[in-house]
Design goal:
With 273 residues, the chain is α/β, with parallel strands linked by helices. The chain has 11 helices and 14 strands. The strands form 2 sheets. An 8-stranded mixed sheet has the order 5-4-3-2-1-12-13-14. A 6-stranded mixed sheet has the order 8-7-6-9-11-10, with helices on one face. This is Cof-type HAD-IIB family hydrolase.
């Protein structure tokens, strides 16, 4: 049995069920893991405020990986220089180009910008923004996004939301623009954009150094394409039963779905048995 010291868990579609909740039995399994002095790290595309309630519900004290590795916090309760373990931002030039392309060619796509623990939009009544707000239970701030970018303020993530066809076309357009960013679809209607210096694997490597653990002592659990690299990297890579087949094929173990307490099964199989 591999001696796992750190577990990295995706949130949506993995830790949470389809109702965006953690079941009691999954929570109990996580608590048992923590009692064994194994770090349980939440790693997500979400902003810090979108994870804090889950972090507190699980009663964990581990660092937090936000925006798919673009921002790592030692303590999600406080944002400050002493709490930031890692920060990778999109350049002003690239952020402005993404904004211009989206607004000019894809006006029906919702443009959302994230800076530290701020979610910045130009229209909070947009249906896509309202949908995301309901999911993560955070309210965005209405600002002049273009001005924010022009002032060279930090941009940790850009989220574009819209109909699948538009998101696919926007991704192709941005990939053709030779930007120094990583674009990936976390689902058919979401395009997540971060710096090339941010990824879940880079986040894992940063915390391997922080905890002085080896890659062979790491377990990673996820459900989608943006989790595939970390699943392949980890000594034990687990795909949820609700993951696409390509993600399952990249894993060492396929657990049950997020609506069948797949997280609990994975922890029992490799940690709690």
């Amino acid at each position: 049995m591999v001696n796992i010291k750190v577990i990295f868990s995706d949130i949506d579609g993995t830790l949470l069920n389809s109702n965006h909740q953690i079941t009691n039995c999954t929570k109990e399994a996580v608590n048992k893991v923590v009692q064994k002095e194994i770090e349980f790290i939440l790693i997500s595309a979400r902003m810090p405020s979108g994870i804090k309630a889950i972090y507190n519900d699980l009663k964990i004290q581990s660092p937090l990986i936000c925006y798919n590795g673009a921002l790592i916090l030692n303590n999600p309760e406080v944002i400050g220089n002493n709490k930031i373990l890692y920060s990778a931002t999109i350049s002003k030039i690239d952020a402005n180009k993404i904004y211009e392309i989206t607004k000019e060619k894809f006006p029906n796509v919702s443009f959302n910008l994230f800076s530290y623990d701020q979610w910045l939009v130009e229209n909070k009544e947009d249906k896509w923004t309202k949908q995301e707000s309901d999911i993560i239970q955070v309210q965005p701030m209405v600002v002049n996004v273009k001005k924010h970018i022009a002032q060279d303020e930090a941009v940790h993530k850009i989220l574009c939301m819209g109909e699948p066809r538009l998101i696919s076309e926007l991704k192709s357009e941005l990939n053709d623009s030779l930007l120094n960013v990583c674009c990936y679809r976390s689902k058919d209607t979401y395009l997540e954009i971060t710096s090339n210096d941010a990824s879940k694997v880079l986040g894992i490597k940063a915390l391997e150094a922080y905890f002085a653990v080896k890659p062979g002592e790491v377990m990673a659990i996820g459900d989608n394409f943006n989790d595939m690299a970390m699943i392949e990297y980890a000594s034990i890579g687990v795909a949820m039963g609700n993951a696409p087949q390509q993600v399952k094929d990249a894993s060492d173990f396929v657990t049950k779905s997020n609506d069948q307490d797949g997280m609990k099964l994975a922890l029992e199989t490799f940690i709690l048995s």
